[in-house]
Amino acid sequence: MPNQRVMFLTICALLSALISPAQSTAQVKRQLVDTLVLCSSDLQTALGPWVDYRRRQGHKIAVRFSKPTVEQNKELIATYASDRLKNILLVGDAGDRWMDPRKLVPTDLVPAKVNLLFGSEPKIGTDNTYGDLDADGVPELSVGRLTADTPGELTETVNRIMRYEQQPTGQPWQRNINLIAGVGGLGRVVDAIVENTTREIVTELIPSGYKTSMTYGSWTSPYCPDPRRFSETAIGRFNEGCLFWVYCGHGNRDRLARIMLPDQSHQILDCESVDQLNCKTGSPIAICLACYTGAHDGADDCLAEHMMRQPNGPVAVVCGSRVTMPYAMSILSVEMMNEYFRGECETLGQLMLKAKQRMVQKPDPNNTYRKSLDALGKTFSPMPNLLAAECKEHMHLMQLIGDPLLRLKRPKSLGLKLVDGSEDSPRTFSVGDTVSVAGTTEHAGTMLVEIAYQRGRLRQRPSFRREYDSSDEAFSKIHEDYLKANSSVCVRKQVRVTAGAFDVSLTIPEGCKGKCDVRAMLLGAEDVAVDSVPIQILSDRQSRKKRRAEDSTRTARLKGAKSGAKPK
């Protein structure tokens, strides 16, 4: 009997020695993971190329089958929590009445507080809590979801992601940002104030080296196309390729709000017309600042899911899962733009994470954009005392339907500067003058240089629309004004440059005047590079006045030289 007891203890000790190192090794491996994937059981094989691709980039990926409940998935995530863990990718649908529930990757439901007061549902569908390790409402990890229903759909999405990152850089679309806006519906005066403030913020936050277009759903605006062609125009802006395709306005689960006119209305985009999204080069990151467009937990797929399903659709969609509020949406937009243009995040998931975190942090007192938005929020929000709570709620509301590891197309600077000019800023020129710019590039390529009106300025005065007119002639004139409002380039030149220093000269054409930018972009190189410098182009009257002043100064100097006196 004693011998049996000794033998039993010996066996237990041996088993313990064998098992403990294995457990320790597994724990060490979990602590090395930077991205944890929770995947539907039938999609893991189709995800394989994405896993291999990301591992070749240096990521430490762990793929696990999703659990039936959010709580179980959170417990699984907790076992991987470490300083290295940065990203959570959910692969599978959150809600589809046609699918086996065992194949779904559940989304969380958190109580609504602010938007509930304005017609939203009691619960907010959100993936945000998967990244909230300490349950304080603020995420520590970036979270994204690939909402494929079938292996074939997932394969298409993965191929689009890899194609986006692997396609040549330095293409014209990589400096384009296309903005689509519906009417706010707050009244003509308030809508105008909000529109002007938003335009000012966009003008300041987006560096002038980038090309923007505005498509606005108010027939009184020069940025409104023929309303009958609004959907065609908005989709066309998507299909031409751009960094970001941004919609701001009203929306629903299956559509963006219609453009409303006094006697008719027109669709922008819905779950049926998404099949017209066909961007073959430069699939945009779509940002839908609208209600319900990202309600991915519904019985039927939401608009964002239908957009992602298109073979040449967006590479990712940022969207709201319930009723969204203008103030918090504006704050998120400002923080996203700040992070993209002035931050250091390399991936879309990290950009979203930083923007969400900053939404609820005390803003920098020198941040004039936040001050402007705070003033608007306090003035026009129905609940100005709930602005902070509104921002915190929108961390849950905003979803990333896409890959959090998606690498951003980050531009480099060309160090662009004017040469052979005065030290005034901006320097002044006249029609017919030559403007020379110089800079440096690490790579050879084609340099696109152009003189363009500064953002928000119109080259031609639009027609004044005092009264609504729905005739074919009036709508054609509206579209003509729209094209002119989005045409800011006065002159353009392409030259071949080698690595190192470069300089390019342009002649200012007739009809160009006022505040302009000299913009430059390196095309066809290994890296994206854009830059700009401001200039002031004098009108004919200003040029004559300047010449008279220069002649007067020159004459005074000549007289002073003859008399020996020093000119003042």
Description:
- The structure is a single chain.
- With 568 residues, this protein is an alpha/beta fold.
- Among the domains are: 28 residues; 111 residues, Sandwich (Immunoglobulin-like); 27 residues.
- It contains 13 helices and 24 strands.
- A 6-stranded mixed sheet has the order 8-7-9-14-15-16. Strands 18-24-23-20-21 form a 5-stranded mixed sheet, with no helix packed on it. The chain has a 4-stranded parallel sheet with strand order 2-1-3-6, sandwiched between helices.
- A hairpin with a 5-residue loop joins strand 23 and strand 24.
- Helix 5 packs antiparallel against helix 10 and helix 8 crosses helix 9.
- It is globular.
Number of helices: 13
**Rg over CA atoms:** 28 Å
Query: What percentage of residues falls in helices of 4 or more residues?
Result: 25-40%
Q: Give the class from helix and strand content and strand pairing.
A: alpha/beta
Biggest sheet record: 6 strands, mixed
Tell me the CATH topology of the domain at 417-478 and 489-537: Immunoglobulin-like
CATH architecture of the domain at 417-478 and 489-537: Sandwich
Overall average residue pLDDT? 88
Q: How large a portion of the residues is in β-strands, by DSSP E?
A: 15-25%
Q: How are the strands of the biggest sheet laid out side by side?
A: 8-7-9-14-15-16
Number of strands: 24
Question: What sort of overall outline do the alpha carbons produce when their principal axes are compared?
Answer: globular
Report the CATH C-level class of the domain at 417-478 and 489-537.
Answer: Mainly Beta
Terminal CA distance reads 117 Å
Low-pLDDT stretches are: 13-21
